[in-house]
TrEMBL record:
<protein>
    <submittedName>
        <fullName>Uncharacterized protein</fullName>
    </submittedName>
</protein>
């Protein structure tokens, strides 16, 4: 189970639902679109549903629930994750460099070069 932090609230969802919500939110942000989704949640020991409005400005994060997912075996330095994130950062920086050299990035001067 995961605690999905959305706005100022927290809902408990499954790991798979949390992953799907994150992936969909990224896709929506990349497309500049929004959507409302209804997800199954656990609240006060009962199951129900919660509506989420997802879009380019959505800020959310998930944390593991204490009783299910925390363990001393988790590698907090996760070398593979760090390298993946650094690789993604380099790719994005390369895209910005390419866009800047092609004149597609707006600069502080207020116009396109």
């Amino acid at each position: 189970m995961r605690e999905l932090h959305y706005g100022t609230g927290v809902i408990t969802v499954s790991f798979d639902v949390c992953s799907a919500v994150f992936d969909y939110t990224v896709a929506l942000a990349n497309a500049g679109k929004s959507d409302r989704v209804t997800v199954p949640v656990m609240a006060g020991g009962a199951r129900g549903f919660s509506n989420l409005l997802l879009g380019p400005a959505t800020q959310l994060y998930c944390t593991a629930t204490v009783e299910d997912d925390f363990t001393d075996e988790v590698d907090l330095d996760d070398v593979k994750l760090v390298e993946l994130l650094r690789q993604k950062t380099r790719l994005l920086a390369g895209s910005e460099t390419l866009a800047a050299s092609s004149g597609l990035i707006e600069h502080d001067s207020g116009g396109l070069e």
